[in-house]
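> example.struct
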């Protein structure tokens, strides 16, 4: 599996939108995923690997956009 999955949004996503976006991405690419929430963090088990999530705003382009980043947890 990839070390990072990046999903682009034009607005800051809520926790629910983050989960929906990740699950939709996995479904579209026939990838198994399970949400594992711990306190205020959203983690995903994607194809057997644990991924952490974060959101980040990019101001370089106009208009700015948001990225949902799933990165491999080590």
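> example.seq
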């Amino acid at each position: 599996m990839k070390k990072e999955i990046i999903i682009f949004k034009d607005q800051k996503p809520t926790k629910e939108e983050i989960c929906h976006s990740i699950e939709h991405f996995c479904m579209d690419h026939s990838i198994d995923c399970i949400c594992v929430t711990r306190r205020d963090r959203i983690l995903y088990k994607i194809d057997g690997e644990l991924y952490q999530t974060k959101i980040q705003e990019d101001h370089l382009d106009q208009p700015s956009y948001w990225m949902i980043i799933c990165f491999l947890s080590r």
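> remarks
The chain has a mean pLDDT of 88.
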